[in-house]
Design brief:
The structure is a homodimer. The first copy, chain A, is of the alpha/beta class. Chain A has 2 domains: about 270 residues, Aldehyde Dehydrogenase, Chain A, domain 1, CATH 3.40.605; about 180 residues, Aldehyde Dehydrogenase, Chain A, domain 2. The first copy, chain A, contains 15 helices and 23 strands. In chain A, helix 6 links the parallel strand 8 and strand 9. In chain A, helix 2 packs across helix 6 and helix 9 runs parallel beside helix 10. Chain A is globular and about 75 Å long. The interface between A and B is large, with 79 and 79 residues. Strand 20 of chain A pairs parallel with strand 21 of chain B, so a sheet runs across the interface.
Chain lengths: ~525, ~525
Amino acid sequence: MAPLHGLNFVASALRKSGRTFAVSSPVDGNLLDGKFQLARPIDAEEALAAAESAAGPFARMTGAERAAFLERVAEEILALGDALIERAAAETALPVARLTGERGRTVGQLRLFAAAAREGSWVDARIDRAQPDRQPLPRPDLRRMKLPLGPVVVFGSSNFPLAFSVAGGDTASALCTGNPVIVKAHRGHPGTSELVAGAIRSAVDACGVPSGVFSMLHGEGNVIGVQLVKDSRVKAVGFTGSRAGGRALMTAAAARPDPIPVFAEMSSCNPLFVLPEALATRSGTIAEGFRNSMTLGVGQFCTKPGILIAVEGESLARFRKELAAAVAAAAPAPMLTAEILREYDAHREALLGVAGVRVLAQAEAAADAAHSQAAAVVAETDAATFLTQPQCSEEVFGPCSLLVAVHDLAEMRAVARRLDGQLTATIHGTDADLEEAADLFELLAGQAGRLIVNGYPTGVEVCHAMQHGGPSPATSDSRFTSVGTAALERFIRPVCLQDMPDRLLPPALQNANPLGLERIVEGVRGRH
Amino acid sequence: MAPLHGLNFVASALRKSGRTFAVSSPVDGNLLDGKFQLARPIDAEEALAAAESAAGPFARMTGAERAAFLERVAEEILALGDALIERAAAETALPVARLTGERGRTVGQLRLFAAAAREGSWVDARIDRAQPDRQPLPRPDLRRMKLPLGPVVVFGSSNFPLAFSVAGGDTASALCTGNPVIVKAHRGHPGTSELVAGAIRSAVDACGVPSGVFSMLHGEGNVIGVQLVKDSRVKAVGFTGSRAGGRALMTAAAARPDPIPVFAEMSSCNPLFVLPEALATRSGTIAEGFRNSMTLGVGQFCTKPGILIAVEGESLARFRKELAAAVAAAAPAPMLTAEILREYDAHREALLGVAGVRVLAQAEAAADAAHSQAAAVVAETDAATFLTQPQCSEEVFGPCSLLVAVHDLAEMRAVARRLDGQLTATIHGTDADLEEAADLFELLAGQAGRLIVNGYPTGVEVCHAMQHGGPSPATSDSRFTSVGTAALERFIRPVCLQDMPDRLLPPALQNANPLGLERIVEGVRGRH
């Protein structure tokens, strides 16, 4: 593999700034190869100007052309081979198997969006024909379709260096629908970001895509990010990260003279409710499943189950022991970065410092802080403490969860009502439990984007029916998703054309339906 | 007709506060019947509590039940008969014919949303079935549908006392999809608002709808409005009004610990571009059509064409005379309220005060200010002034528009680029003109929600293909519309149910599709 150049991708140019940073291995603290250039405001400015110029030509490309581009991005990522996985593993300490899976997901996601671009019905074409003889007034011919918003700024995440970063779901959905993308790379994995950006750049060149369609900048703090979000040429933002980070971008976007939509995925405790009969009959299985889910990826999933709620009693006493044994056996593992470990330590200690919260279970093996390791912990509290101490419902990013022991189902519902908005909520129950839990389902449906029955929230399918987005603070707008084909709806807007001659209409709206799209004509949907 | 009681509608109760206001006829300044109670914070609090309690039961009602309710609202409004039209005419000075048409539109809108509620496919059901044998991991069963957001606050508009007020498009779309509504009545037509609120209240009682589903409050300034928007029980906002008013609500909503979506329709100049051959061949028709559109409803339409752009030359010289003659003949007419007239005077004078702007045409008959009359005015300027004076692209709410004379098509495009986001943009052209205007169409499609060819922007159809919403500052979020069936998308959010037993699923997601909905199953759409 060629050495990393560390430069910023500003459309077709590679830009050097002078000020650099390097990253260390989270595992041993040794510096990794590569010095990465911190983008200057002028680099952002050039990327913005290029994105603005590219927006029109990119929007005019056919769906088939954009599909070929996305597929080429997928191929170029695969062509990076082991080098990509090795660098990502070195930068994030995530296991090779997990990263290989994540690459598969990333490539699959690009291909799924390519298929959507090629098929084309996402434009949601609607036609209401003229009624010249209507009384008291004639009706004009009205045709509506969705167009790209324009340049989208995407912030790479820390915890998914491939699937939610440079060529992740936000980028794929923006490109699929014809929007140029400027990525602000995550500071934790700049080498991985460079490799993937290079793959996109190769695809841009190979497919004749306007060069301004893709730029990627390295930056520190939120200076470059806020510059991008405030710029009038930027029309939307995709973000996956912390609540504070997401909120800062939302505030910047809302304060613009022309506010723009921000889709920020921020914070979620993913509560898991264990109903009484399920606890009585399969506490051991749930203890193990919960431990596996909360420690997956060292607890660094946005869907990590951070709160488990169960009713006090003999079954819970047994479950406590089973969970303690399962957690004791969990091996400490390195977190993504030393900084994330420090934040994990701080948030975990803040939780454990709440009066009425105690440690229920912890990994037996000590975490080696020099190797950025975190050990799993389960804390415990009661409903009274949970309901009065806001700290208990704050997300702890890492392998720490909280058991809330409640006296009865009424108290369980009170805990559910106290929860903020969530990405997911899970219920474990036997058939009999579930039959009686209709009110709990209804309550949780109002608070979470996805409800899981007898499963675990980690593992987010990329498909049509996925919803990855929930009420605040889980995401900035619960009406949208960042995973699945519906994610492309974030970056498009409808335009209605009134009385435009057929030959001047975009093909999607012409009478003959030359693209063979599914359309709504006079209120009736079909390929007509 | 019974005398107006002037009370606030707080769920099933009518509340008196002690502090009242009255309204005068805009035509003669005489006080109209009725003393209206200014809602207190406690009234808003009660309305909020009632809305929160009603949200669950209302969401559980079937689509057919909600459809019957909306249809009953329509019937109750019609049953108010002439009294409604007379009161609305007295409060707004709008002509009886216009108000009768607006009532028809309001009732038609309610029935269209009733049909959508009954048909039910707006839930956008999606099913991806389990693949237990998938490698490397099984796929769970995933099913997604849209649910109501929860209580919605609707602000009545000044200029559509029926179609964009108490039972207007915002209320109809929120109720259709199962959201309780709290209306803040517009100060200008409290009697009309009371009559319509009474109609909704009657329908609530007749249809067994939970009483908290509808409340309506009178208020002054934005005190009650901001209290409502900041309250954690409110989940979305619909607003039609001024840019300052909309922006204040957006800011309040964005500053909440849990920001909520605001759909605000605020400000638009609706530019109309006349291409050279069209100007040469039918300047007289365009002059008359433009005059009619800009003076319709005394220029108090959000879609009033406020800017006309044409190329300097002989044809424009002729057009100036034709437009001057047409405008001279326009009869002054009373505006909605004395306050709106004052604002119109101020904004018009601010425009006319710009160096480089002059009066091109005005109504011959003097406006009678004592009768709140406004007279039509067309100002004129050149591209250089327009491009450098921001005041020229500010909306003037009322019968005042601005002609921008440009030197050539390049300068016309420069003017187009300078424009802020718009609800509409219009192009007049012959076939030959239009063939050459592809770049102008593309430019305007990026700036406006609706493009009109050889027509006028006033007149907004309520249908499937309508888009009434554009980039900032036209509306707060160009991805949504406030008119047409797509307007209901503003107030719903998707929820995904994972591995839920079929019998516990909502009917919309059950295998047998008992509601006969159009759904997307494994990515394929159909009634399956």
